Write a sequence for this structure.
């Protein structure tokens, strides 16, 4: 299709204004036009007479006979042609021909015509001011199924339809996009047919067949692109450096299989000549941080610098302390850089970084402000990558030449989605939790039953274990939720008189929060009362109880992340989800999911089903993904199929040099984004 990239400005009757309107619909080229998916169809195969329109503004299309023509005075002192006609049921229709006096000459009393009109009804008489009238039924698309397109600006259906049809015929014959064998084997329509039926289906059932074909090929090329970009040099097992061995040897536990596998994938990338760009996805508590440290050692052993960026001071601090205790004994030189540091201290740190006196720099985005320079930054690790904007990530990556990048996320995005949202990334997934972890027992507690809950948590306190009490942040009302937290804090002090506790919320300074968390970790307090600041990443293994008040107000992803603050050791852990009376069906559904499973991936799938993919946290900024035909919610089978086929091709013929794959080479670039 040599004209597929041609601008629509070349199409007759499309001028500058229409071009701009089309651009708002994402249509710039002939190809975009034929890929413009109708939002609905109008079945004009059998006529629809006046009687059938019971509500205002319904569309009719039928034969009419003209009975009278009159001119009636119009408001501005002019006149308007009014035509009276009847359909085959003898229902009366008044046509108001605003500024269309020419119809007087064209339409004759006693003759029959075909009309398509949007009608309204008054006192038993139908009227229309907007209509099309022709001598031949076919000119109005009678006998056909008509596409209804999305519109923008001054576009109308007629303009869009004729533009699409022009592009369809200009590009025909439309060629296949997939190897010939695909079509029969996968039950797809050839592309020429698929595009034709998308716009002009002979039967409604053809529409879905056409869409499936186009959706498959859309997904397939996405998958093919991403599988082809991946590095397939995993045949040699990468060397494990002695630094890494030392750390592994010093741990009181062994790595899980998933941790080992992720590490091997990362090491292979780090050792390869092309830069790594990998997403490490792991459920809360699955041990991603340790994988990050070990992979950092892999680079540090080669004499490179590594940067680790966390989204908040709180997390950066926790990671720095964790790194200090694990890595400093191995001789790794660590620095901790945040916005809170003094000028003088900052100057010293910056010089050390520039001189190469630091191996591992840990911090917030303060690591990547303009004045920071590294001597030999080769590897950048981003914790909770979705919390950073594109700009921040760019800044950071700009500090090094082709750095290796590892992004980590605890948002368990279903693999099918991750592959598409992050199609430019390689993916390592840690699914299993460390050995000996017990599933967190989750209880749904109605407000009336809180006393029982308080008693059972006290038993945990007596065992020396700790708890979090979380109160949801009420949207837009931080003050209100802090008050609620204060009230709960007072209530709990009354319920647990013998136990120390603290309150933690967003109005505290970072240092205060860090101090409270450190003391909590050291066991000084039995419990913390908080708004949702007890966020992703906080790791205090001795805390075994999580109480979430008004749990019905949280989304599934948030509930799962919060619950993940417990269950971080081999101790049995408990989560109590307190709900109010009269909660919505959706909320009930969510709470049940939480009670039934601990598996973040299952929860994410359910979340996807309840809410749709646009809302999955962490994926929203991936708005670049504009699928035309495929639905990420409904086409999970197609996604899986596309991936399978793409992987088969990539393994078998990565360069797409085989004759039967020549066609793929043509479409693989420029088809996407
Ligand atoms: P994530 O960041 O994936 O939520 P973390 O890295 O914070 O999880 O790890 C959670 C806890 O599990 C930490 O206390 C960590 O030391 C511990 N841990 C990590 N790997 C293992 C393992 N293989 N066996 C036992 N405990 C582990
Ligand atoms: Mg973490």
């Amino acid at each position: 299709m040599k004209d597929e990239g041609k601008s629509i400005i070349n199409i007759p009757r499309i001028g500058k204004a229409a071009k701009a309107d089309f651009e708002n619909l994402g249509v710039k080229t002939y190809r975009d036009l034929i890929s413009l998916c109708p939002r609905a169809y109008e079945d004009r195969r059998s006529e629809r007479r006046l009687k059938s329109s019971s509500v205002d503004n319904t569309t009719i299309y039928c034969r009419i006979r003209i009975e009278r023509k009159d001119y009636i005075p119009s408001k501005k002192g002019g006149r308007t042609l009014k035509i009276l006609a009847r359909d085959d049921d003898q229902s009366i229709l008044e046509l108001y021909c605003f500024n269309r006096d020419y119809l007087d000459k064209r339409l004759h009393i006693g003759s029959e015509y075909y009309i398509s009109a949007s009608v309204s009804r008054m006192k038993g008489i139908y009227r229309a001011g907007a209509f099309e009238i022709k001598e031949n039924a076919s000119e109005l698309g009678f006998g056909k199924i008509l596409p209804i397109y999305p519109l923008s600006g001054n576009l109308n259906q007629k303009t869009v339809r004729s533009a699409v049809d022009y592009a369809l015929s200009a590009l025909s014959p439309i060629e296949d996009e997939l190897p010939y064998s695909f079509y029969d084997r996968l039950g797809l329509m050839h592309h020429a047919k698929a595009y034709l039926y998308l716009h002009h289906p002979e039967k409604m059932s053809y529409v879905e067949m056409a869409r499936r074909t186009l959706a498959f090929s859309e997904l397939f090329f996405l998958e093919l692109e991403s599988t082809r970009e991946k590095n397939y040099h995993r045949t040699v097992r990468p060397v494990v450096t002695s630094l890494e061995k030392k750390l592994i040897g010093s741990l009181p536990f062994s790595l899980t299989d998933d941790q080992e596998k992720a590490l091997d994938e990362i090491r292979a990338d780090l050792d390869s000549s092309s830069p790594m760009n990998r997403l490490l996805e792991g459920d809360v508590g699955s041990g991603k941080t340790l994988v990050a440290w070990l992979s950092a050692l892999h680079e540090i052993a080669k004499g490179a610098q590594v940067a680790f960026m966390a989204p908040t001071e709180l997390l950066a601090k926790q990671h720095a302390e964790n790194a200090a205790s694990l890595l400093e004994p191995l001789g790794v030189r660590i620095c901790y850089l945040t916005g809170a540091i003094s000028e003088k201290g900052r100057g010293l740190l910056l010089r050390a970084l520039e001189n190469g006196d630091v191996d591992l720099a840990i911090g917030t985005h303060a690591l990547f402000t303009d004045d920071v320079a590294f001597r030999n930054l080769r590897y950048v690790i981003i914790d909770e990558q979705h919390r950073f904007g594109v700009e921040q990530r760019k800044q950071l990556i700009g500090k090094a030449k082709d750095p290796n990048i590892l992004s980590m996320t605890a948002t368990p995005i279903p693999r099918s989605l991750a592959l598409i949202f992050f199609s430019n990334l390689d993916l390592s997934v840690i699914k299993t939790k460390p050995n000996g972890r017990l599933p967190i027992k989750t209880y749904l507690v109605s407000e009336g039953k809180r006393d029982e809950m308080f008693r059972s948590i006290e038993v945990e306190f007596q065992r020396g274990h700790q708890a979090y009490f979380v109160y949801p942040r009420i949207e837009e009302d931080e003050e209100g939720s802090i008050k609620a937290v204060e009230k709960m804090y007072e209530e709990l002090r009354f319920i647990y008189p013998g136990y120390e506790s603290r309150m933690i919320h967003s109005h505290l300074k970072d240092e205060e929060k860090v101090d409270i968390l450190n003391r909590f970790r050291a066991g000084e307090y039995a419990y913390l009362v908080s708004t949702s600041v007890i966020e992703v990443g906080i790791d205090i293994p001795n805390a075994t109880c999580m109480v979430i008040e008004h749990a019905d107000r949280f989304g599934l992803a948030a509930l799962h992340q919060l619950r993940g603050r417990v269950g971080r050791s081999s101790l049995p852990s408990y989560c109590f989800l307190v709900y109010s009376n009269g909660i919505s069906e959706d909320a009930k559904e969510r709470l049940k999911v939480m009670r039934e499973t601990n598996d973040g991936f299952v929860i994410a799938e359910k979340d996807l089903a309840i809410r749709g993919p646009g809302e999955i946290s962490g994926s929203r900024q991936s708005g670049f993904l504009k699928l035309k035909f495929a639905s990420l919610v409904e086409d999970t089978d197609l996604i899986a199929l596309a991936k399978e086929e793409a992987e088969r091709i990539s393994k078998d013929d990565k360069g797409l040099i085989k004759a039967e794959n020549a066609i793929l080479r043509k479409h693989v670039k420029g088809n996407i984004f």
About this structure: Confidence is low (pLDDT under 50) at residues 614-625.
